[in-house]
Amino acid sequence: MDELGTELSLTFEVAEWSGNSFIIKKYLVDTDEEMNLLFNNMISVFCKRHLVNYRKE
Length: 57
Hints:
This protein is of the alpha+beta class. The protein contains one helix and two strands.
């Protein structure tokens, strides 16, 4: 992701599609508040960049 100056790799444990919505589940083990915030931000960027465009196709 050039705009963030980083590469992003993400593995989903569960992804459920239904109609025009989706649910992504990721199981975090041994986490803290900072890690939860990082994950929420990472998944938001991923979804906005990749899944929104996918739904339009």
